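For practice. Any example?
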Amino acid sequence: MVRFKNDDSAYVGRYLAVVADGMGGHAGGNVASASTVLDLVHLDSQVHDDEPLTVLADEIQAANSLLSELVTTSPQLSGMGTTVTALLLHDRRLALAHIGDSRAYRLKNDRFEQISIDHTFVQRLIDEGRLRPEEAEVHPHKNVLMRVLGDVDASPELDLATFDVEPGERWLLCSDGLTAVLRDSDIEGILRGTPDLQECVDTLVELTLAGGSPDNVTVAVIQIDEDADVDTEPSAAGEPPRTTSVAALPRTAAAASATAPDASTAGSADGESTDTDPDAGERERAALIRQDLSSRPHVLVGAASLATETGQIPIVTQRSAERRAARMLTHKAENEDQQDPQPDQDAQPRWRRWLLPTFLTVLALLLAAVVWLGYTWTQTRYYVGSYDNRVAIYNGVSQTVGPIQLSHVTDISDIPVDSLSEYHRNRVEETLPARDLEHAGEIVNELRDTAKAVLCPPADPTPDAGSATASAQPPGNNACGGEQ
């Protein structure tokens, strides 16, 4: 199956590999995947300000914020989203960040395994023991995603992990177009039996297409080289790296003429008008991204490649170009004057990125405080009701919040509810509020007197000694409080 719109994007360089699959059937799936991939490619470096896993997670969160900005300025893109599966190599360790149903496989020490976990509805059913793995393939909701990158979540939950790497091990990243057709055993056989990486990728793609893949197919195969530990001397601008620690060859199976939002309707991400020679601006932004990418060996495919080559996705190229321009200017200033470094251009966006989560956290704490105070107040209240057909005193209020009962029994009297008059019995069933515990006790005493009045008939001043009724009563206490 060949689609005329490619929602997949992928990038593989010396230190970074990422595959993103835009949400099919949603407007802007190609925009979401291209924007995310292009926003991460600057991580293709061996020098980072923080731990690689932290850097990778932070940048994916930043890419998610960018998608939200795009939807704000271009409402027609509402609902777009993308999966992300990314690897970042640093000092013989791989940082993995994953969200969605694209997959990461590893072949190491003769063991092949799926490392990532699908964030799908059927995978959740499998994890809960409600569905067998073989049933997932034919489940009607097998393509329903539970977690994606997009405008639906201000702080998406990523799966994060770090792995030690060894020379010769292989990793495979792919979109679900591959796994919808090929079984894991088929993928393993090709990954094991094909020494050449390009041939390995080509074979996987060709078998997937021959099997009638229902979606775009993107595959990246990464192999750790013997010289994964490299010297830290930088290469000259435009020169290839002196060693290659990661070799990767992605391939996407989809029509080359992918469609994209029209520039006249999509607009620009920062609200600038595109009426004044928009084509020139798009070409300049695309050229800037190409200049940035040309400084390192890499492979870029899918919607992200289309954005940089043609500028047909102006939102992506503009926003990504702005971020790259800021970084390039910063690096240039640092090289010219090491004694007067420029401030980090991304500091303000990084700070703003945490503003909403902080606000939501404070709001949640305030809500929790209000709930706690409300519950504490209910425990100062009392009422009289029934418990097991007995009049009882309750502490709290006679309401529930979901499964939470806001009251509990503090005292059970010896007064049967059935012994009360119909009027008082109904009042007890509907509960009688009390000001405090002492007041509740007074209410119970009044009900006791009412019960006695109901059960005790007026005394007969001249009882018949031979009465059958009198002789039938056993001696002892009765409800009237006396003896017979």
Observations:
- The radius of gyration is 36 Å.
- Residues 107 and 170 are 5 Å apart (CA to CA).
